[in-house]
Specification:
This protein is α+β, with helices and mostly antiparallel strands. The protein is built from ten helices and twelve strands. A hairpin with a 2-residue loop joins strand 8 and strand 9. The longest helix is centred in the middle third of the chain and has 43 residues. It is globular, with a radius of gyration of 27 Å. The termini are far apart.
Length: 364
């Protein structure tokens, strides 16, 4: 009699979540045998046990170097020495490995920071390249649509043809998917740089929390962070509409924000030269941030994160950290720009397009 097998269809966004699901299946007596198209899993029935899973990528570029060619061979040999066996791989050349749990043993396939970063970069590049291919095909469809439109105008036809609708719908879907894969690549890199324990802790809602909120002023940010601190949460990271917190077990924390303008004001008060770079069109010169960190650390503040408009958030212990800037700045209505470079370009493009459209309407 053959083995009892079962197929499961499941879409999982996150390799750590996928590992945990496969390990839960092993505890129920179902062991991975094959995977197709990233969603169709084939399991074989067996005696339930604690089995660990991990993964890596071994796709090669079209013109690989000798080091890239031999990397897979060396990695597989190292994995076997650590007790990991190759289970299967999917169509994108993501390989799955399994190993029985060992109490007190090394239960991570990538058990050092360097190997985790190398593996994370491979997955990030894979997802980012997929997004770039979507952008390429979207651009190609747009060019073809423009060619058809010129031909239609030349013949005197001025109606929206079927391929215009096709191009519009395709571009919308294509751009959304390209953005998704780009962001998923960044999330995957961050996730795979963690150890298993670090990832488990980051998923614990009692220890870590994410709040989606749009805050546009320094005053609003100060009040929001003060409320979260009263609830026992301290800030660890900020994205355009996401605030990440971890549980606080220490003294009461307070926050302050610094900027290039405020750093230059302190420099002038100390009779120093303001930070100014005429070639720095995109705000990439971080000399002022270096000075800001030195100033903040000298007054008892700890760096939390930098925002996309080059503002910096610091955290300090109440009663210990000294004011970095005038207290009125932390309670001001000064705008906090979190839209980033691409958001600014998009807003400028919409404004310019609207102005051109209005002007053109007067002459048509």
């Amino acid at each position: 009699m053959g083995k009892e097998r079962s197929k499961r269809f499941r879409l999982l966004w996150g390799y750590q979540k996928e590992r945990r699901w496969l390990e839960d299946m092993a505890l129920q007596g179902w062991f991975l045998e094959d995977i197709n198209f990233g969603v169709c899993y084939t399991f074989a029935r067996g005696e339930p046990k604690r089995l660990l899973y991990d993964m890596d990528r071994f796709d090669l570029p079209k013109k690989p170097t000798l080091e890239e060619i031999r990397h897979k061979e060396m990695f597989l040999e190292m994995a076997r020495e650590l007790g990991w066996r190759e289970v299967t791989h999917d169509e994108s050349m993501t390989y799955y490995f399994a190993k029985e749990y060992e109490e007190g043993g090394i239960n991570e396939l990538h058990n050092d920071e360097e190997s985790r970063r190398y593996r994370a970069a491979k997955f990030k590049n894979f997802l980012s390249d997929y997004g770039k291919r979507l952008v390429f095909w979207g651009t190609l469809i747009l060019v073809l649509d423009l060619v058809f439109r010129v031909e239609m105008d030349f013949r005197g036809d001025h109606f929206l043809a079927w391929y215009d609708w096709f191009a519009l719908v395709y571009l919308c879907i294509n751009n959304v998917l390209a953005l998704f894969y780009w962001k998923q690549g960044k999330r995957t890199e961050r996730e795979l740089c963690m150890t298993r324990q670090e990832w488990e802790e980051s998923m614990d809602p009692n220890r870590h929390r994410k709040v989606r909120k749009l805050i546009l002023t320094v005053r609003g940010l100060s009040r929001f962070l003060a409320r979260k601190e009263e609830q026992g949460w301290i800030l660890t990271e900020v994205t355009p509409m996401g605030y990440y917190f971890e549980k606080s077990h220490g003294a009461k924390q307070i926050y302050t924000m610094d900027s290039k303008r405020m750093t230059n004001r302190r420099r002038k008060e100390m009779h120093g030269q303001a930070f100014k770079d005429g070639k720095d069109w995109n705000g990439l010169n971080n000399d002022w941030e270096i000075q800001s960190v030195h100033d903040a650390e000298g007054k008892g503040w700890t760096f939390v994160c930098a925002l996309e408009n080059r503002a910096v958030i610091y955290r300090g212990e109440a009663g210990v950290a000294q004011p970095l800037n005038d207290a009125r700045y932390d309670n001001s209505l000064r705008c906090i720009s979190l839209i980033g470079e691409y958001g600014l370009i998009l807003l400028c493009s919409v404004f310019v397009g609207a102005v051109i459209g209005i002007i053109t309407s007067f002459f048509i």
